[in-house]
Amino acid sequence: MNAAKTFHVTTFGCQMNEHDSERMKGMLESLGYAEAPEQEGADLILFNTCSIREKADSRFIAYLQQAAAHKRRAPGTVIGVGGCWAQSVKHDVFRQFPYVDVAFGPGQVHKLAEFLTTDSLTAQGFFEFEGFTGHLPVKRARDFQGWVQISAGCNMKCSYCIVPATRGRQVDRPLDELVAEVRDMVENGVLEVTLLGQNVNAYGRAVRGGERSSFAALLHELDALDGLRRIRYTSPHPQDMKEDVVLAHAQLESVCPHMHLPLQTGSSRVLKAMRRTYDRARFLDRVALIREHNPDIALTTDIIVGFPGETEADFAETLEVCEEVGFDGAFTFIYSPRRDTEAAELVEDFVDHEIAVARMERLVEVIQRRAAERAQRFVGRTLDVLVEGSSRTDAARLRGRSGHGKVVNFSGLAEPGEIVPVQITAATSQTLAGEMSLLARALV
Is 149 helix (H, G, I), strand (E, B) or coil? Predict the structure, then answer.
């Protein structure tokens, strides 16, 4: 009996790519492939790529070159490249990398199976959006947590962002289709879902094959599903953060008390150059509305340092907003020019790298200090924690995540997938620590 062919998937970038990679793995296993722990020796080497930042491109190319070396030693190896990078260089991928056998964009994941089951594996590329991957088999990283793609593409025109060029204009899935998918997930043991889209709170305006809806309506429908304990989502846009979604956080038990609201910069002048469609005052107004209805909510954000033309005064405004808001955490990035974006043409306005690095250090100090201050509100409280496994720093302790999105390392006896009460005893800017009593576990 011949051994099953093997595959190895390397994923770069966002949660949407994590979602698509889980679908690729499920699809491949349904075709009889087995997952290999390492790239070396795999019959099929797959990359799910990202184009948001230059660093991701560089890392991917290094991995791709390793795969090419492996293919020279084992000529029967198939190399596949999917995701945003593949979409962005669709006209050149086979010319630049002749050892690639198949390339496909985010809307063509299902074509991988078609390619692998053809009689002749000649190089092929698939880049026209055909549909979502929700119907494909899935192999989840954790059985109790699942990604749900509610839309694809984006109608915004941020001057630094390549996503509209790689994923196209926004297309939404019908509400009843999403509810059915999540219901099936819950019936198969999923407790927590994360809703994915480039601009999730714009959901419902561009439904393919269904009636218009809204993101708040989707949250209400999912909250009504028995057995679904937690709903998360990423990422919303401040322009579309309306009161109905804010109220959903306050009214719906399963919607987590955590919101990721990208700021990008605290300077209205730079926000305009970024084409972000809101200014500093509008962002702060949204924060005030959110906290009015959800005083305990955890707010996280994205911030770009060194956008072309950013002055010291502009950067100071970013620091001021971060001090005022007191984010619970932030993803911070030094601006990276992306091909085919408006901002990449502003070469004469590029900020010196040394200046950008120095600003980043100052920003991180503010973010971490304010996050540490905010985290102290949890000390002495008991939080429900979804157990994910062993602590990464101490194998004798457990690791999980609170509804606020905070990582919690704690002592106790529990299995991955359980939601247990943990008394918080200490807090840093990034993690919480605590103890779970045997009595508390008995009451779960």
Answer: strand
